[in-house]
Amino acid sequence: MSAIPLHRRARRRRIVLGRALAATRQAFLGNKTALLGLVLTLAIVMAAIGAPWLSWIDPIDQDIMSRLKPPSAAHLLGTDQFGRDIFARLLHGARITLLIALSANLIAMAIGSLIGLIAGYYGGRLDIVLMQFMDALLALPSLILGLLLVAVLGPNAANISAAIALTLVPAYARVARTPTIAIKEREFVASGRALGYSDLRLMFRHILPNIVPEILVVASLWMASAVRVEASLAFIGLGVRPPAATWGGMIRDGFENILDGPYLVIFPGFAILVLVLALNLLGDGLRDAIDPRLREER
To answer: What integer best gives the mean pLDDT of the chain?
Structure first.
């Protein structure tokens, strides 16, 4: 097989890929709900990054004389039972929530995608063993599995990220495995195999780039799941230790004084709702834009 046909095929694939990316971008920009999810997500991320500048009050500073104050000019969202500013705690809590959710997804994406890629490429007994192990993890409720791991390892940001990542690995493995099985039979992979390319080169240079879009869609959707699990763990007392602010921890603390100040629960609960909704809208929009069949239905 000459180098010229391979070069032409590579160029043709680049052209097709460029057209596909243009169609995906156009479909995404034409989806108003997806754009709403993107705007809300970016707004929360920017608020978390700019927390020290958006709030002039330290989130852990206590002022007992100002405890349980309703929203006012001095405290935009009021204060909690220790006199801490809720607005400042929401902003700084967004940092912890996003950091844990992002770290967990990156870890799960790397491990799960690798497992799915290996299982789908080699098949046979290795595929059966790996995917049965993934099914066993998938059978356990994510919150229960995360609860067990955090209870054993201890409640800190690194352990919580690792625990949530373990609950997400099976999802990424399944998503990576299915398209790998189909792509490994494609002509360009067969051509590379005939030229003596190694399995690693075929998997990581030829198959992996073709399954990345589907993995990214799952990442945006499971970011929302990671946010919910982190908030749930914090609510039951297994989140990042006080006095660090977390949205789930704020809801937990607010329940003790919910009759005196319902805003203690409403504001962090609403923040979790908006972030989860934004991530789901963004993920649905990416899925619709990437899948040609869904693009045609719109």
So the answer is: 83
Indicate the pTM of the whole model: 0.82
Any residues with CB less than 8 A from the CB of 41 and at least 6 apart, and which? 275, 278, 279, 282
- Amino acid present at 216: L
- pLDDT computed for residue 10 by the predictor: 55
> Cα–Cα–Cα angle for 255, 274, 169, nearest 5°?
95
Q: What is the CATH number of the domain that holds 101?
A: 1.10.3720.10
The answer for residues whose C-beta is within 8 angstroms of residue 54's C-beta and 6 or more apart is: 47, 91
Q: Quick one: what percent of the chain has pLDDT higher than 70?
A: 88
Domain that holds residue 137: 3-297
How far apart (Å, rounded) are the C-alpha atoms in residues 253 and 235? 8
How far is Cα 100 from Cα 164, in angstroms, rounded to an integer?
A: 9
Q: Which amino acid is at 255?
A: F
List beta partners, residue 181: none
